[in-house]
């Protein structure tokens, strides 16, 4: 496969991922898309109403905003490292051989 | 695909938030059980990681990339056809590159980060979550990759299916873990498993496909820009290598 058809392929991959993420937002109307980790919790309560969590998180994010900050940071740091590594490899591979 | 999506939307309209098992939501005996199961894998993973970085220090950056890939993917809460959000796991890539035990360590670290700072998952449930995401998923990815490579030699297909099925299996295991700990009074394990799987595994189907595609994307980049290290990894794993060029 030559370089340009490869990068075309990569664009298709990116578009497909975006499509998979966006389609539910368009086609599944009236859904909540989130909330707390409630659903499994609800089922557990249905099955064993007397069950109480016996341990709580040591640290919970102060608010939804702080939580989304932390999630965004996690994604940013991860994406940064992936981008750095790929960029370095790309630069290295395009260096003229001595 | 459209038919499947439609069926899923109509069949499972309940909102769900498919994630890892929350803090305190496993009875203590199960929490301890999964810790005991997961720990040996983690220790073996540390030893393997140590061996890889000692023998081939140049692979550290690629290891970082595999860990960072899991880190970024598990931060992405993506909407799914069930009307709720969940996130990919990102463990398939590293498992195929470095073997499953390496991803046990990296995946557990991601889970630890999320448990400590984000109250997402938990310390008591870390053993169980590590087993599903950082042990079962990577091992499945590794075996599926080798199986398909052995059968057809189609590498992109092998990568895609390894990553996607490992992702899906992670949440099937989560459902099994919850069903074991909370068998229904009527119908027992099977009835509970059906309920949890409807939440965790079904939401995960489109995300599993996304993860497969993203893993192929990164693989394409690596193949374009860093074929020599992929070659080297084949040597380390001692597979598919007929020409002794070094």
From TrEMBL, chain A:
The lineage of its organism: Bacteria, Bacillati, Cyanobacteriota, Cyanophyceae, Nostocales. Keywords: Cell membrane, Cobalamin biosynthesis, Cobalt, Cobalt transport, Ion transport, Membrane, Transmembrane, Transmembrane helix, Transport. Pathway: Cofactor biosynthesis; adenosylcobalamin biosynthesis. Forms an energy-coupling factor (ECF) transporter complex composed of an ATP-binding protein (A component, CbiO), a transmembrane protein (T component, CbiQ) and 2 possible substrate-capture proteins (S components, CbiM and CbiN) of unknown stoichimetry. HAMAP family: CbiN. This is Cobalt transport protein CbiN. It is found in: Cell membrane. NCBIfam families: PRK02898.1 (NF002780). It comes from the Bacteria. It comes from Okeanomitos corallinicola TIOX110. The chain crosses the membrane at residues 12-31, 69-89. Part of the energy-coupling factor (ECF) transporter complex CbiMNOQ involved in cobalt import. PANTHER family: COBALT TRANSPORT PROTEIN CBIN. It is a multi-pass membrane protein. Belongs to the CbiN family.
TrEMBL record, chain B:
InterPro entries: CbiM, CbiM/NikMN. Its main location: membrane. It comes from the Bacteria. Pathway: Cofactor biosynthesis; adenosylcobalamin biosynthesis. Pfam families: CbiM. HAMAP family: CbiM (MF_01462). Belongs to the CbiM family. Part of the energy-coupling factor (ECF) transporter complex CbiMNOQ involved in cobalt import. This is Cobalt transport protein CbiM. It comes from Okeanomitos corallinicola TIOX110. The lineage of its organism: Bacteria, Bacillati, Cyanobacteriota, Cyanophyceae, Nostocales. The gene is cbiM.
């Amino acid at each position: 496969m030559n370089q340009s058809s490869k990068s075309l392929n990569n664009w298709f991959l990116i578009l497909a991922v975006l499509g998979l993420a966006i389609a539910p937002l368009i086609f599944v109307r009236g859904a909540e898309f989130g909330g707390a980790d409630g659903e499994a919790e609800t089922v557990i309560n249905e099955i064993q109403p007397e069950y109480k969590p016996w341990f709580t998180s040591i640290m919970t994010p102060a608010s939804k905003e702080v939580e989304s900050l932390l999630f965004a940071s996690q994604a940013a740091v991860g994406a940064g490292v992936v981008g750095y590594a790929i960029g370095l490899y790309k630069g290295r591979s395009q260096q003229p051989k001595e | 695909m459209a038919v499947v999506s439609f069926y899923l939307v109509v069949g499972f309209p309940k909102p769900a938030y498919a994630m890892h098992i929350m803090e305190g939501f496993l009875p203590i005996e199960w929490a301890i059980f999964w810790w005991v199961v997961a720990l040996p894998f983690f220790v073996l993973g540390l030893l393997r990681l140590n061996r890889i970085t000692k023998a081939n220090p140049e692979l550290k950056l690629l290891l970082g990339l595999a860990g960072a890939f899991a880190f970024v993917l598990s931060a992405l809460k993506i909407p799914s056809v069930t009307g709720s959000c969940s996130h990919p796991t990102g463990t398939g890539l590293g498992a195929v590159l470095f073997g499953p035990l390496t991803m046990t360590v990296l995946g557990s670290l991601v889970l630890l980060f999320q448990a400590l700072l984000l109250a997402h998952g938990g310390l008591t449930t870390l053993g169980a979550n590590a087993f599903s995401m950082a042990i079962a998923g990577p091992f499945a990815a590794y075996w599926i990759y080798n199986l398909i490579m052995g059968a057809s030699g189609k590498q992109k297909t092998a990568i895609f299916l390894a990553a996607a099925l490992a992702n899906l299996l992670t949440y099937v295991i989560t459902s099994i873990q919850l069903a074991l700990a909370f068998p229904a009074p009527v119908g027992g394990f099977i009835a509970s498993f059906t309920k949890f799987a409807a939440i965790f595994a079904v939401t995960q189907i489109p995300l599993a496909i996304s993860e497969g595609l993203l893993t192929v994307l990164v693989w394409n980049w690596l193949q374009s820009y860093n074929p020599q290290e992929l070659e080297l990894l084949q040597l380390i794993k001692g597979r598919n290598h007929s020409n002794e060029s070094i």
